[in-house]
Amino acid sequence: MVQVASDPKPPSVESRILVSRAAVAGIRPIRAVSTSPPFLPFALPEIGDEEIAEVVDTLRSGWITTGPKARRFEADFAAWLAEDGAARADELQCIAVNSATAGLHLALEALGIGPGDEVITTTHTFTATAEVVRYLGADVRLVDIDPATLNIDPAAVEAAIGPRTRAILPVHYGGLAADMPAIHAIARRHGLKVVEDAAHALPATSAGRLVGTLDSDATVFSFYANKTITTGEGGMLVTRDPALARRARVMRLHGMSRDAFDRFTADVPSWYYEIVAPGFKYNLTDIAAALGLHQLAKARRFQQQRQAIAERYDRAFTGLPLVTPPRAPAGQTHAWHLYAVRLTDAAGVARDAFVERLFAAGIGASVHYIPLHLQPYWRDRYGLRPEQFPHSQRAYERTASLPIYTRMSDGDVERVAGAVVHALGGARRR
What we know:
The chain has helices at 13-24, 49-61, 68-81, 100-110, 127-135, 154-160, 180-190, 242-252, 260-265, 286-297, 299-316, 351-360, 376-382, 390-398, 410-423; strands spanning 93-97, 118-122, 139-143, 165-169, 193-198, 205-206, 209-210, 218-222, 235-239, 322-323, 339-343, 399-402. By secondary structure, it is of the alpha/beta class. The strands form three sheets. Strands 1-9-8-5-4-2-3 form a seven-stranded mixed sheet, sandwiched between helices. A three-stranded antiparallel sheet has the order 10-11-12. Helix 2 (49-61) runs antiparallel to helix 10 and helix 3 packs parallel to helix 10 (286-297). It is globular and about 70 Å long.
């Protein structure tokens, strides 16, 4: 009888195939040895006992949709943003929603964006940034990025302003704040609204202030599963404008004049409500908010851990034929949602092959983003061509995003760095 050494981990598919073949041959193995390290995914959330206990408490409370914990999350978020002193908690209106997409839609709707209007945003983003404009019957004007930061180029924004332009929708790419002083100056000169897509930007800063406390009309954060903090699905709309906040709250839940928490918890029964607009179903549940309460409390620690990983990558990639992500200006904070490297001409490998080599080494990678000007809907609707967006096009062709999340061990980081070196053939620039 032939025995194979035992392995405490579950056998891989390949191991099970070997065992099956051995059985057919009359051999009785105990367990096959896995020679491949486990696959390292591109992103994983960090969920602790505190989040789990809060969710269990929510389930036991009987209030699992939007209720007391969603309101507490909104209040905590305002207080958290106010900690650096750039705003008071009582002047920040925070509206919890079920996605950042929902928050962007609500913000633009509350600002009155509609048919005949135009909103300027970057081509180098996920489609959600632009699609919310089309929800409202308005048009998108896509512009190129700054080749150094991959953020929207303020000069391109100003050049794109026309008689139909009503708003600017900047994206903070990868966790590095866009040039918001320049964007706000442009908006003031032309009488435009500003809504920040801050899906990557918790907790990033611009000119010494947290994103979310700037002079924009609204800022929208994402709490999707791979973001810097998560509620599974979810987002937060932040504004100083009471009228915008009132409209967003009404439209968040079917255009009802009162939400369920108010109607079902009052001392005097208050079942009556009115539908004042054809609203949406964008509310965040208390189950999701329960996660958010404790994720928010860990946000600064999470950022520090992500930054430490970024710094280790920077050191490991010194001399390699690639461009590492830009750092935040001195004194500012990068949220490090993404760590996106760009291959140089000397890399000797195309981006697609580079990503395939990482996957072959068991490393999850991604591409941020396939620009909107290449996507069939946006390309065909507006007649877009790659040469209109040379910086975004070049970045897309050379960019790959590496794993960067708080559950990564030192060994995981070393493994990713080693896989990158190997994928590049081990060559370093002279």
